[in-house]
Amino acid sequence: MRMCAMALASSKSKWAAMTNAEIIKAVEEKQLAFYALEQALAPDYERAIEIRREVVKAKWCPSAADTHPLETVPFKNYEWDRVVGQCCENIVGYVPIPLGVAGPLLIDGKKIGLPMATTEGALIASTNRGANAINSSGGCTTAVLKEGMTRAPVVEVDSLEEAAALVKFCEENLSILQEAFESTTRFGKLKSIKCAVAGRKVFLRFVAFTGDAMGMNMITKGCDKALEVLKQHVPSMRVLALSGNYCTDKKPSAINWIEGRGKTVVAEALIKADVVEKTLKCSVDSIVSLNKDKNLVGSAMAGSVGGFNAHAANVVAAVYIATGQDPAQVVESATCITSMDKVGSDLLISVTMPSIEVGAVGGGTGLPAQRALLEVMGCAGANKEEPGANSRQLARVVAGAVLCGELSLMSGLAAGHLLSAHMKLNRKPPQ
Amino acid sequence: MRMCAMALASSKSKWAAMTNAEIIKAVEEKQLAFYALEQALAPDYERAIEIRREVVKAKWCPSAADTHPLETVPFKNYEWDRVVGQCCENIVGYVPIPLGVAGPLLIDGKKIGLPMATTEGALIASTNRGANAINSSGGCTTAVLKEGMTRAPVVEVDSLEEAAALVKFCEENLSILQEAFESTTRFGKLKSIKCAVAGRKVFLRFVAFTGDAMGMNMITKGCDKALEVLKQHVPSMRVLALSGNYCTDKKPSAINWIEGRGKTVVAEALIKADVVEKTLKCSVDSIVSLNKDKNLVGSAMAGSVGGFNAHAANVVAAVYIATGQDPAQVVESATCITSMDKVGSDLLISVTMPSIEVGAVGGGTGLPAQRALLEVMGCAGANKEEPGANSRQLARVVAGAVLCGELSLMSGLAAGHLLSAHMKLNRKPPQ
Amino acid sequence: MRMCAMALASSKSKWAAMTNAEIIKAVEEKQLAFYALEQALAPDYERAIEIRREVVKAKWCPSAADTHPLETVPFKNYEWDRVVGQCCENIVGYVPIPLGVAGPLLIDGKKIGLPMATTEGALIASTNRGANAINSSGGCTTAVLKEGMTRAPVVEVDSLEEAAALVKFCEENLSILQEAFESTTRFGKLKSIKCAVAGRKVFLRFVAFTGDAMGMNMITKGCDKALEVLKQHVPSMRVLALSGNYCTDKKPSAINWIEGRGKTVVAEALIKADVVEKTLKCSVDSIVSLNKDKNLVGSAMAGSVGGFNAHAANVVAAVYIATGQDPAQVVESATCITSMDKVGSDLLISVTMPSIEVGAVGGGTGLPAQRALLEVMGCAGANKEEPGANSRQLARVVAGAVLCGELSLMSGLAAGHLLSAHMKLNRKPPQ
Amino acid sequence: MRMCAMALASSKSKWAAMTNAEIIKAVEEKQLAFYALEQALAPDYERAIEIRREVVKAKWCPSAADTHPLETVPFKNYEWDRVVGQCCENIVGYVPIPLGVAGPLLIDGKKIGLPMATTEGALIASTNRGANAINSSGGCTTAVLKEGMTRAPVVEVDSLEEAAALVKFCEENLSILQEAFESTTRFGKLKSIKCAVAGRKVFLRFVAFTGDAMGMNMITKGCDKALEVLKQHVPSMRVLALSGNYCTDKKPSAINWIEGRGKTVVAEALIKADVVEKTLKCSVDSIVSLNKDKNLVGSAMAGSVGGFNAHAANVVAAVYIATGQDPAQVVESATCITSMDKVGSDLLISVTMPSIEVGAVGGGTGLPAQRALLEVMGCAGANKEEPGANSRQLARVVAGAVLCGELSLMSGLAAGHLLSAHMKLNRKPPQ
Fold first, then answer.
1. Which residues from chain A sit within 8 angstroms of residue C309, using beta carbons?
2. How far, in Å, CA of D177 to CA of D166, rounded?
3. A257 vs D259: CB contact, 8 Å cut-off?
4. B254 contact residues in C (CB cutoff 8 A)
5. Which member of B180, C54, C376, D257 has the lowest number of beta carbons within 10 Å of its beta carbon?
């Protein structure tokens, strides 16, 4: 698929000199691959994209309208060099996602604004309301209880005995595998390996510290190397796949809920009774009771593993899109149990989130707007003094934002005024 | 929070006449609410946003740099009137998400391009590769097996006997509740109610056809009305919350996996052996075997409910962001079991996705780029001849796109060349 | 394996006339099958068993001891004709399980003793304590919300289109399948079929009323017939297996938790505050709070589906063994959510159990002691006036017994005196 | 409830001297507690039980029949001194469970008979058939991959910060807690503690080696002591309950599936193609294919965690009841994934069972028949040379027996002859 890259490189000047129409013809006649336009016209990526749009408009979905719908999708004045070859292929433009801010939230003693990219009406207003209530009560605190990205290759051996021996080797010789793993990375540290055996297949869940990166790339490289060394010690071992779904990435799974993935974070706030009543318009008893009926019993009845919350995913998705995180990882990052108890006459609320997968470098965090929003939050890029501190801080803020969202939505439901509020603004209803 | 809207309206001219500096001062002195800038300056939303950005820059995160990071976040030349009061609050701009296209995919006899907004390198290239392999084998087919958005209020009665009677009433008098429900909506049709009892709490999972809308709004309004009527028949009933998490929205849950939510779609393709070998560079046996070891056994070992796939969430998230769907609903929309079998010497692959929650109208589908991409796919807006046909078509395409993604990633893993390919492009590794 | 039954029958007199030593020799020389002793010596089953014990003692585990351990296992004076060919093969005796009684419990206005066969010290005492507390407060009430045994064959067709058509056929022609199903049974009534599709495999979960039988036999026969008729309408359909695990029998599964299997029963009691304090030695607040922390939050953290209780399985297993139910079905029968709320100053406790699989006829219920205990409870055999009433009653009692067990153990934990109590009697600790 | 034990002791001679009628009157007039009969008449427990039966017959369920049903329940000639005060209360007799044997199975090079107490027709015959097929192919091998009983108290502290500190203390000072734990037990060894935080509640899952005992008693005592010491270091900590359901005992849970509880055992066998065809009457391809469709896909569709098998619970329950194990622990002990692959032309089958909870001492293992059957299997009582070896051996045999059951039932289903076979004997159908 990626063949002829060199040929392309040497002939770049040729393509640049052609007219758009000529290049389109070349694409249609398969002299130039559809995907290779950026390579052919580098560094004029905007032109490459413009040409691709013409191809798409003409061939994929001819339109009788005066203005082809694709015209509505913007593509100009963007830093495409940060995208090409890194974040996206077959580029035809970009999709703007509306961005609002909630807060700032007083979290661990600092005020931090919460950027949220969303199209769900009322979500930011609601999160903001939660932040106000929390701020009025002295803010929230967070704790990062655990940290480690995971990747679980699946391997095969020739007997059950060998499978048991392989597990034993990993337990007793972690340092050998650590050395191999860490030879591939500056920041990554292999922390442990959790093994599961199914017959002669062994799933090896590597857990690694990955600095300020979300870390999937880093850990995959490290695993690959560690498996190479492992094979020297267990020659019969065959790697079936670098990922055996025991990781688990972007799929619901109990293992992430129980073991954690990325950062395991808890955030809590003690909301004063009068704030609950005046700002949140409900009583401490009513919200505590509803939290049990909905977030515990309701989710239990629904057969949920990790979904003991009202709408954590809304907040996580909005902050993730704003800050260049991987939105597919919302699947596990948004697992959360929301606890509420009456303490004295006040409301103690907390969210426990075992699998917040975030990075301050890499992936979409390098795009201009996303990077800027991380800067606004004070956690962009690699933390030089304390590697990993920026991604941990981002994870704390995600948990804090979820805390705001849970407090606000649950109080709205407890007060029973939510539907009317939503409907008035033609917004989406409660989750 | 939204009070004084009328007061604002009448004084709009006042704010419009002020300088930005004056308005900023008014916001700082709380004469004008931070969130109310758009209302005060309507219809000049761009100016409202510009002013909010100044407030944020000055107060939330003062920066010593020449250029404040927020400057990097775009906000001009956007159709803010489609956003204000509908999709976002406290707006400060928008976040551009790179957009590429895969395919077009031959699906149910038609060629349809797959727009994907993503920052994950290699994702679109991979999906495209899958589409090519499918197209070379005659395309894929899909089936929509079920359709129905859900919402489950939780109510309380005064005894177990009453709880049982309530359940019985709902079973035997569905038509009464249908009439109430349908009085609130032009398209919505209440199909059934599934009840679960926990002590004296009853969870009523309403299932409704919602036309071309994803339907959360529609169904919530309908539920509210149906509960009002239900209360006339069961006076002791108290509504604890309009959503009791038995819905289940945006949380992992077995109930969605088993009952479905939104559209239940299956897509399949028969890939010829030589396409598997030449295009996908692996053998039918190896990919079938890996599908069992990874997507079935690996996910089983991980305690997954609904995550029997390689990376459905990647594809779903990318198509959802491109087309204005709710990215938080990726949580359940991406549940998927990927099946592979050898049929003759060819590869039969299918994806079964019980909970694809999509709409062709409402939410983010009204934003310009998102709407345009739905148009490109041929399923924008309400289908006049056959209400619901557009959202069903969108669901089919989502499943088809996931089929491409599964085929491509699994073949890459089976061929063992994935890490190198990813790493070469500094892209993220396999899921 | 069962061949030569006729040959055996005709030569019965031959075996009966031989000495034990001769028969043992014949077994050792494989002239008589080890399993066929009962057939050869019928109706003298005790002699057959005695001979088998000799074979086992001599060949399987020769013992130097004066008394072979197997001598300790009783086998005499038992009604083996109720066992042979029905309940057990290769019989060598029986295992006595100690039997105690708790209660009687005041349930739905009647006092019913709770027979429990168990070796877990303190279990019956604890259940009895719960029954006392419930009786002191006016007893408990129950409701059977749903009823239906299930069986889910898995079938295969030749395309996705056919799979969709098959599902549609089952939905639209239930009566055809009902007729087929019901032709095989006097009591069974096919209520519904729930279909799940995975590629070209279709899982058809038949739900049937099975009278006073637990019903697995009845429903399997009915399914077999219904599939035969279904195949006439969908000729390409192939039955892969009569059970496709979507039933789900004797395995943990969300489908049983959500859809129910057997009887779905709720039991509740309102325990007066002074009973909680004086009999149960804890406070209403403390037990309500612990129920949330342990049975809801603790089980949620553990990733449980259906295990939101303290020790329902203990009680279910003990009653099942006493009454001839299938102890392997404890797996799903014991799924239970225990709810506790403060109502006024009293304690409202309930247990919701969606999958109580019991029968008043069939299986082990025909054995002498087990049958007798069902008689003592007033629900033995088929109810002539109202088929199914006896098995429903048994299910109610099971739920009531679980209610006793939950109340007692939870109050003990809340009072903090459990360990000492258990240890004093050298009994097992709390679950 | 257990008060007045001393008073009873001193007056024993008094009761012994009375007639049965007098004692019955005393019980009815509450001069003697119903539960205290054994204490009053010790050591003549049989008489105590006889009297209790009279009370039950007269008061709980008067019968017009000539023979009261309870007469059918045996109680004579049993070693009640092994039961009273240990295994059962309010004793009225015992329930005989038919006992058969399967095998002997060639497991890890030794032939071991499989005692099974069951009322499910065909179960033993089927297990036996599996054993024959395995023996014909050279037997099966097993591996114990992990060992540790668990108990998880739930505690509470006063802030999130303290919760984090508590977790850290447990991680960094395991040896302090080990010392405390191990001061209470001769065999028990605390191996690790896994902490989960939900707000200010902390669940501490203790994992301990418990020698040849199943170990719930041992670990609970150890936890109690360790918590006492932990509280000295974290004075704000309050123990909410000695079991917080994060253990998890006798409830379905992902944590046991993923972390294991008791013994984690895998058993495998390579069945020769001709054995599959001749003994098992199916083909290797058909059984491998069915294992995927039923045990993997079917269970996945059903939302199962840990139920990827055909009927492990049947075999586990039968062996547990025969050998005095806790039948309520079948819930988690029977979780199992059954793998089948074609290796060459043969069938590789394995069962992976992470949570086999068995003991060779304690609980019901001390009863005469149960103890004898453990002796027959060669693993009764505490292993003096290698503590724990007997319970591990029992766990291996359980896994081996399950392997037989899986092989046999799956081949029967694959061959399609199961229903007829079952029906002929009026037995229960496949699981």
1. none
2. 12
3. no
4. 254-255, 257-258, 305
5. C54
Contact across the interface for A141 and D160, Cβ inside 8 Å: yes
| Spatial separation of the C-alpha atoms in residues D360 and D392, rounded to whole Å | 9
User: Which of C95, C242, C301 has its CB closest to that of D117?
Assistant: C95
What number is the ipTM of this complex? 0.95
The answer to whether the Cβ–Cβ distance between C160 and B167 falls below 8 Å is no
The tally of domains found in chain C comes to 3
Catalytic annotation present for A224: no
Cis (ω within 30 of 0) for the bond into B368? no
Regarding whether A108 and A48 lie in a shared domain, the answer is no
The answer on B136 and B157 residing in a single domain is no
DSSP letters of A40-52? HHTT-HHHHHHHH
Q: Which chain D residues are Cβ-neighbours of C213 within 8 angstroms?
A: none
Residue A409 included in any domain: yes
Say if D233 falls within a structural domain: yes
CATH number for position C121: 3.90.770.10
What are the distances in angstroms from CA C343 to CA A340, B159, C288? 19, 11, 11
Residues of C in contact with A288 (CB under 8 A): none
Residue C422: active-site member: yes
Domain that holds residue B55: 1-82
Residues B312 and B364 placed together within one structural domain of the fold: yes
CATH number at residue A204: 3.30.70.420
Report d(CA A179, CA A173) in Å as an integer: 10
Side-chain-side CA neighbours of C206 within 13 Å: the count stands at: 34
* Residue D256 maps to a domain: no
Cα angle for residues D360, D362, D365 (degrees, 5° grid): 60
Alpha carbon distance B383, B360 (integer Å): 9
In a domain, A422, yes or no: yes
Domain edge (last residue) among A36, A56, A82: A82
A198 and D337 in contact by Cβ < 8 A?
yes
Chain B (261-300) residues lying within 8 Å, Cβ to Cβ, of chain D? 292, 296-297, 299-300
Do A23 and A49 belong together in one domain?
A: yes
**What CA–CA distance (Å, rounded) separates A250 from A253?**
9
Same structural domain, C226 and C178:
yes
- One domain for residues D228 and D271: no
Given an 8 Å threshold on Cβ–Cβ distance, is C308 in contact with A300? yes
Mark whether B411 and B285 lie in a shared domain: yes
Say whether both A161 and A115 belong to one domain.
no
Contact C299 A300 (CB under 8 A): yes
- Partner residue opposite A297 with nearest CB, options C305, C306, C339: C339
> Nearest CA to CA, how far is B399 from chain C (Å)?
12
Contact residues for B329 (Cβ-Cβ < 8 A; gap 6+): A313, B214, B249, B250, B262, B320, B357
Q: Which helix (H) or strand (E) holds D238?
A: strand D238-241
Q: Is A110 a catalytic residue?
A: no
Residue pair C399/C352 in contact (Cβ under 8 Å)? The answer is no
Question: Is A424 a catalytic site residue?
Answer: no
The tens-digit pLDDT sequence of chain A (431 residues) is 343 555 555 666 799 999 999 999 999 999 999 999 999 999 999 999 999 999 999 988 877 778 899 999 999 999 999 999 999 999 999 999 999 999 999 999 999 999 999 999 999 999 999 999 999 999 999 999 999 999 999 999 999 999 999 999 999 999 999 999 999 999 999 999 999 999 999 999 999 999 999 999 999 999 999 999 999 999 999 999 999 999 999 999 999 999 999 999 999 999 999 999 999 999 999 999 999 999 999 999 999 999 999 999 999 999 999 999 999 999 999 999 999 999 999 999 999 999 999 999 999 999 999 999 999 999 999 999 999 999 999 999 999 999 999 999 999 999 985 554 444 444 444 55
* Contact yes or no for D337 and B301 at CB 8 A: yes
pTM: 0.96
Residues of chain B contacting residue D306, judged by C-beta atoms under 8 Å apart = 303
